[in-house]
Amino acid sequence: MLCGMAEAQRMRHPSDPWPEKSLHTTTQWVVSPSLKYDALCALDMLSGDPFYLKFYRDDYNRLAPRLTPQEKNDFVAIKRIIKDKNKGIVSADLALILSVEAGDMLDDILIALDKPNEIRERLQATPYYSEPNFSEFMQVRPHLIAAIRALKRIGFDDDWNQHVRSQILARMSHLQPELARYNIVPIQEQVLGHRLPDNRIQVYLLYYSEPHGIKITGTRFLTHVSYPSDIVLHNAVHEMMHPPYSLDDPKTREAVEALRHDPFLMDKVLHHNPSFGYNEFEGFVEEDCVQALEQTLTQSMGLEDDEQEYWRIQDAGMHVLAIALYELMEHGKFLQRESFSTFFQRMVFTGELSNARLIELNRKFWSEPNGARLPRQ
Question: Checking phi first, is residue 332 left (phi over 0); if not, alpha (psi -120 to 50) or beta?
Answer without folding.
Answer: left
